Amino acid sequence: MTTKITVTALLTAVAIALQYIEVPIPLVPSFLKLDFSDLPELIGAFVLGPQYGIIICLLKNLIHLPVSSSMFVGEFSNFILGAIFVFVAGIIYQYNKTKKGALIGCVAGAFAMAVLSVVTNYFIVYPVYAELWAGGDMNVIVNMYKLLLPSSDTLLKSLIIFNVPFTLFKGIVDAVIAMIIYKPLSNMIVRMNTAFTKKRDSKAEKA
């Protein structure tokens, strides 16, 4: 448990730092930016279990609330989609703890996050954004998509054309990086756990 708490805290700190690094992506509206803050959550889900991935996602967004520029709506959306991603990936990996299982989990999690992003954005995120920043006029948001593609003249169409591929791409990028660094990180955590165990046993013997 000491190891899990320590690793959770470390991964949360990394996730918070990565949340501030946003990369604009061509051919999508400017408010859609790529960040890698889901990566530590994904690693946590693989190494510690899906529940820890969700905890890291929750802590990251709670700590980010005081500097929120979206009236907390962005953090809520980030938590919901991030939690879906790491939960699906983590659950699948738990039943198949191999590199193939991790890859399948990542891809399934990315697809689940992409599909459900339509639901959360359509019914929750964008209506709240429109109410806060555009007096409830959803056309203000739709027009930002139409500047890139005139045929995206409804919110639903815009989400399917732009947000689904963007969210899927984001999940796949996180998955690729996770596959690269997972094994070295996992080995490090095993060593940490061994060190904690030896320290605990040593104290027990002295007692």
Automatic annotation (TrEMBL):
Gene3D superfamilies: 1.10.1760.20. Its main location: membrane. Keywords: Cell membrane, Membrane, Transmembrane, Transmembrane helix, Transport. It is a multi-pass membrane protein. InterPro entries: ECF_trnsprt_substrate-spec, RibU. This is Riboflavin transporter. Pfam families: ECF_trnsprt (PF12822). It comes from the Bacteria. Belongs to the prokaryotic riboflavin transporter (P-RFT) (TC 2.A.87) family. Probably a riboflavin-binding protein that interacts with the energy-coupling factor (ECF) ABC-transporter complex. It is found in: Cell membrane. The chain crosses the membrane at residues 76-95, 102-124, 159-182.
